[in-house]
Structures
1.
Amino acid sequence: MQEFDHIEALWAKHTVDVKISADDMLKQAKKDVSNIRTKSLLNIIGMALSIFAVAAVWFFYDFASITTHFGISIIILAVTVYTIILYANHRVIAQNDFTQNPNIFLQKLKVYQLQRHQLYNRLYWFYVIALSLGMGLYFFELLQNFDFWLQVLILFLSFGWIIFCSTLVRKAVIKRDKERIALLIEKFERISNQFKDTE
């Protein structure tokens, strides 16, 4: 039994120092950065398409109530502002070539991480409130054409979807985004340290 404890103690002291070359880490980081940039760009494109879709509804249908026009205006304004913020966040990581200077890109990545945190917390709630207000005003005229039970169902599904996205979906996205950016920051810190060691 003492031999087993001795072997276990030796095993606990034994550490394997795995060295990954800076080039291999850069290749891996390049793939991760490309994925983040692509996802960010797809979000921006999706938001821009939703602006055009809402504007098309506004343009092609003749709404009689001023509240509907206000509602659609608020929705378009909220989505446009949020899209501009997403684009500003995207530019932080899209403009820099991380292979040129990983330290500068690391600083930009930390700024991007902070901006994403603000986007998912404070700014998101302004977006949801504006979107809910816009939808409420939009539904004012639209729902008058439906039976009462259908009005309740449309309102329940619409605002239920907003609540679902604001709670469960938002938390999952925040967690995944936070882990991905933190892992990328860790990789670039290791790359920066390896470059310092080689100098």
2.
Amino acid sequence: MTNAPTQQQEQEQAEPELPMLSAPADGLPPVVADEAALARTVAAFAAGTGPVAVDAERASGYRYGQRAFLVQLRREGAGTALIDPDALPDLSSLGAVLADAEWVLHAANQDLPCLAEVGMRPTRLFDTELGSRIAGLPRVGLGAVVEELLGLRLAKEHSAVDWSTRPLPEPWLTYAALDVEVLVQVRDALAERLAAQGKLEWALEEFAAVADAPAPVPPAEPWRRVSGLHAVRSRRQLAVVRALWQARDEEARRRDTSPGRLLPDSAIVAAARATPRTPQALASTSGFTGRAAKSKLQTWADAVAAALALPEADLPAHTPRGDGPPPPRAWAAKDPLAAARLGAARAAVTALAEEHGLPVENLLQPDALRRVAWAPPQPLEAEGVRAALAARGARPWQLDLVAAPVAAAMAQARVTEADPGPAPVED
């Protein structure tokens, strides 16, 4: 007896498989790895026309930091170039001839820092990932966007490989070349969709803000980004996390390896909670059994010991010091009216985002909303809210949509008996 086909099987049979983009149209170019080849590439891209598709591959999870190990470009009249920034760490000559071109990137914020390190900075850009969010696409990964807009499948099986490998295998290079193969076509199709939705000017304002943004400032306490830190309760335990993170970071930088390959975050948290007093006790702690962790066991043990010996005054605070308002969960206890303002403003922004088919965070940065709700302008009117949000980086298109509704929502917010009780206050 044969089982009846499922609805999913019937749908798969009814929908033909999209064609796979499997090879660059012009063939796979050789990797540019010497000054003579770079000079030829610069000349070719200077003579090219129109936007330039740009991408970069990093060795995240393998090497220390986020530097580029391959830069890919494609432009009409110039074709595709694959450049090795490990061999050519200064690409400022290429950046200079592309200074006036529109750069097309997917998730530009991920690539711009490592491109800047090699001397490449755009003055204008089109971010196909950010544009896809504004257009309301359900999935915004490059492969999904290519499928949605161009009806092509894009292989993504090499996205997490070690791009510091030399020589780079040909299948990896093909994958890298295909990442820029149709990026300009995606840009054109997406611009057309955004224009039809009345959102193209919104997107262009967002792209300009990305291009003009200053270099990201490293966090003051990067060790607080350890995954699972919420399970660490006491300040003494936080000191152990800090000490182990710093020891791991120093060793990872020295070895040029990803910190997580030496010691996983879970091991740091486990050690902080157990506070082992000897190297032997540390060796039996979860996460310290791998070869890389064992090779520096005395280093980790010394870090733990130093943290346990710190005087109370030198222990880290429970929460990072900042210039912003307290965590929202503490607002109901500290300032119930501010909590009511935030709840009302969030509801207004969420409704607007749904109305316009936008992710909430792309309509307005949550931090800007929190800060204005905590310390609103007086009087609480649309123009004051507009100015306060603008000071926090909101773009004109965002202000046109949210300033008046947010001001009205906050002005009408009231503390009532139906409001939730006080939330616990953090130290």
